[in-house]
Structures are given as C-alpha cells and as structure tokens.
C-alpha cells in the first residue's frame, strides 16, 4: 500500500491502516512530540519545587533528595511506561483513546448504552465489531451484575463523568502552572521584578494562547514538534552535565531502596510531599486521549526511545544539583541551568509551556465534542479548523470559558505550589478512573482471568491510591480547586443528560399514530402541498408528538414527508456509506419516509453540505432496491414514477420542520427535580446553541413548532 503525504498528515487515526512503514511510524512519532508530550515534558519546571514546598523542606539532605528522585524514576517507569504505554494504549476503540473510548467499549460489550435511541442495526456497523463472542465466567458475572442493577449503570456513568470533568480541570491548571512556572524564571536574572509583573506577563501569554485557538493548531503545528524536541534535548543535556558536575552518585538513587529510606526518615511529611512527585507524570492521560491522531506504535516509539530517557536524565541532573545546593530548592530548575545557556533555555521553556497548554486545550475541545455527541453537554458551536486533519476543532464558548478560569486561578493563587497541589489531585483522580475502567475492559472485553485483573488493580491502583491520598491531604492548600471545577461540570453534564433522556421518554410515550392523522385528514381539512418536508425528531420509530401538534393546528404537510433523526452511536467513526438508514412510514401511497443519520462520538458533523441532495439520493436508492410484490414491469415503472415525483417535490422546495420543545417538571415532582429541570436545564436549553444552528438548517426554509413537555 502506497502512503500519500495526506495520509501521514492526517495521522493513522482509525482502523483504516493496519500496517505502516518504518518511515511513517517515525514521522508520526516526531509529530506526536509537539501534540502529545508538551504537558509531560514541562513537568520538570515545577516538580521538585512543589515536592519540597511543605515541611519536607526542613529535611534537605542527600537522602531526602535521592529518595524523591527514586520515587520520580519508579513512578515514571511503572505508571507512564508500563501502565500507559504497554497496557492502556492497547485498549483503543477503533484507534481512539481516552476515558470515553474505554466507556464506549464497555457500553458495546456489556450492553450499557446511555443513548436512548439505540437500534439493533447499529450493531451491524463495521466499527461496532465486538471481537469473539465467547464469554468467560468473570465477564458473564460482571455483565449480569450490570443487567440486574440498573443503578450501577448510572453510577458508572457518573464515575466516567467524574474522570472527564477532572480532565477538563487539567486543561485549566496545565496552562496556568506551565506558563507561570516558565515566566517566574526571569526573577533569577531580574530580582527586583515584582511578583505582580510576573503574574501580568503570565496573563498576557495566557490570553495570547487562547486568542489564537480560532486559527487552528494546524497553522502553528509545524513549529510545535521542533520546540518540544529542542526542549527535551536541552533539559536532558543539562541533566547529564549536572550529574557529572555536581554528584554522579545520584545514579545509585535508581534503586528502589531509597524510596523506603525516604519514607522511613520523613514519615508523614514524606507521604504528604508525594503530591508533588506525581506531577512528574502529568500528561500521560493526554497521551492516551490523543491516541486517535496518531498510531499506537508511533506513540510508544516516541515515548520509549526519546521522551522517557530525556525526562529521566533531566530529573536526575536536577537532583544532582540539589544535593549540593540545598538553598536553591525553591528555584532549582533555573538555578541548575549553566549561565551561558540560561536565556536560550528560558525562551525555549516559555515556548514549551505554550505547546503544553495547546495540547490540553485541544484535548478539552475533543472531550466536550464527545460529550455533546453522547448528550452529556449542552449544544455548542463546533468549528473545524482544518480540512485535512481529522479532529482538529475549535469551540468558542469553551475556549473563552477556559481562558477566564485560567486567568482567575493565575491571579487568585499566584503561587505555583498551590496550583501544583490542585493539579496533583486532578491528575491522580483521572488516573484512578482509567485504572478502574481498564479493569472492566480487561474482564469484559479482553476476557482476562481474574488473577490478571486483580494483579493490574493491586499493582497500579495501590500506587495511584498512595498518591491520591497525599493529594487529598492538600485539599485546603489548593486541592479544592479541581474538586469545585469537576463538581460544577459534572452537575452540568448530568442534568443535561437527565433532561435530554426525560424529553426522549416523553416523545416515546406520546408517539402519534400516522394512520390516525391520515384518518382525521378530511374532518380537519388536511391537504398535501408540493415539496419535501423534513421533520427533525429524536425518535427512530413512530411519529413524534410535535408533528401531531403541528398538523392539528396547521392541517397541511408536504407531498413528500421525511422524518429525519440525527443520532450518535457509541463508536468513534461511521463510514459515509453507512451513515443513512432509510425506511418507509406507512403505505407507499403516503409518500412518507424515515431517515436515520448516524454519527460516531468522534464524528463531529461538518457543515451539512449538500444535505438535501444526499438525502434525496439515499431515498431514491432505497426505492430502487426496495422489493416489490407487483409484476417486474409494473414494479420498475412504479419506482421510476415515485423517483420522478420525489425529484419534482425537491424542485418545488424543501422545508425544515423543527420542534422547539420546552421541558417542565410535573406538579407532583420533588423540589430537587423541579430545580434541576425548571431552572438549570431550562437555563442551559435557552442559552445553548439551537438545534437549527447545530444542524445548519437554512433559516429561509425553517419552520419551528413550539411545545411544552411535562416530564
């Protein structure tokens, strides 16, 4: 198979490419440096500073510093390398990674669909493949548990939303701590510079980062990889230099014995300081979440052979410097830089902070897009910033919201140590969610033995719980920030999902019989007018109540009527040839059809370009392939007449009929439900993007029908 430059530019993001050449893997590995590893590679700016920010600073002798480096090395090796690179990256969903990819796998294999309009035909999609049908005793037991306890499915959804919201919290804290840490280095050369000016400069850089998002990352992506490469080479070279110059004995700290000595000598203070150590692996979740833009092999190659050794050398060199310069513990990174190269490294560090910020901001856009597709977030405007690279999107509302939150944290805290405490809690929470979901995936999807699953949980879960407990201790010192952010986002997501499901249940319970509407036609003076009417609905079967409300008040509808259901399926992508599912509604003489338009959760619909023509073509193809009971000649003639009638209706004009429904809680509902539906959900529905905007419906052809849903 010949690989075109366009293919390399797009990345190997789906299941389309099974084998790749060595050159393509290396090309993608190089590109991934500028997209995936920006967050991970800027951690040396603040890890040691945050770790020694508490009472542990009183124990600044070689044993403590050696112990901290030993913890960093083994945490980086066990969590980043073994867990994520060797295990978690293999749990992709048709090439996609992240929390929602794991949840999507579980939903398909364990039948845990959160989408109310799921159909059996969705399981025949090429991307819905579920592997071998064989079941183990453990996988059957877990599936049975979820089937018998519906509340456990809801709890799993809340658990996934918690991890997702913590990941969004990362996108607030990463730009803040990266930029503030990078800029604060200038105080070493200009000591008289007031802290307020450092904060102002950081805020200006943050505003600039968020202001250029609308241009798309592809316009500046060409400089991202060289910046990350230059940064990693710089800090690793300085690390080797510092190791040789200050303390070559630091190599002995690779032994895990130093971790035991560290905890034995520092006790509770050492345990509390581990919240700073865990910052060394910030960005590993981004590595998994951005799997869809690259191949798993290219990410493994880049991390194992370049990123991992570079960062270990950087941490080792800084520890060697600290062992001989205890007084510089709170400004160790920039103090460890040799004088002749200080300013070049400072400039590269600032750019690296921008690259790291870009990575998590882009990841947040993808997360919000997935949440919207799965009815877990209010509708927002999604703009594709690249016509070539899949998945590069920009969401204005989310972008400016993140900017305001970043500025608020920067101005409000001003202290990278407090921001680091908050950051650590967010990172460990996401890692714990991934570990738990991976245990389910190993049981249900991979059909692993219970011993293997327990070994995975005990090995990695215990390490992450140790770090999580340390971060929980820091809640009063900044750890409350990600908790507040995640609870706020989780409330928004859960209430939106709850309100959407309740509206769908109302539609299902109040479906209208088309035969009844047709039968009422003469009594209410119903007529059929020329043209095609597209009635948008969330139902995949039956006629929505809003259409019955429409025809009883305006007893006329179009000669050709199509009920259009645009829905998401719990797969990342759907091929264009599988997107439309056409069926008839009622007898052929009714001239009514149903079109289910399917998208994956990573399949953000672009502008509905030429949607009318594509829909009409799909209907005509359905008619031509539809089996008939008439004789062959008359059947062919009937099909031609029907196709001609559809083309004439299209030329007469296409009208879009949308239901503008308003949900209200029933009088008998609890106070909490009334607050959620009548206040919060109503506010979000009023202020989010309208359905017509999301679907790009032309306003000149739009007809909205208002209706109140009592849920």
UniProtKB/TrEMBL annotation:
InterPro entries, A to Z: K+_transporter, K_trans_C, K_trans_N
Subcellular location per the Swiss-Prot or TrEMBL entry: Cell membrane; Membrane
Residue ranges crossing the lipid bilayer per the database entry: 65-86, 155-177, 197-213, 220-241, 270-289, 301-322, 342-372, 425-446, 453-473, 479-496
GO MF entry, a single one: potassium ion transmembrane transporter activity
Domain K+ potassium transporter integral membrane: residue ranges: 28-518
Keywords: Ion transport, Membrane, Potassium, Potassium transport, Transmembrane, Transmembrane helix, Transport
Pfam families in alphabetical order: K_trans, K_trans_C
PANTHER family per UniProt: OSMOTIC STRESS POTASSIUM TRANSPORTER, POTASSIUM TRANSPORTER 1
Similarity comment text for this entry: Belongs to the HAK/KUP transporter (TC 2.A.72.3) family.
Name of the protein in question: Potassium transporter
Organism: Thlaspi arvense
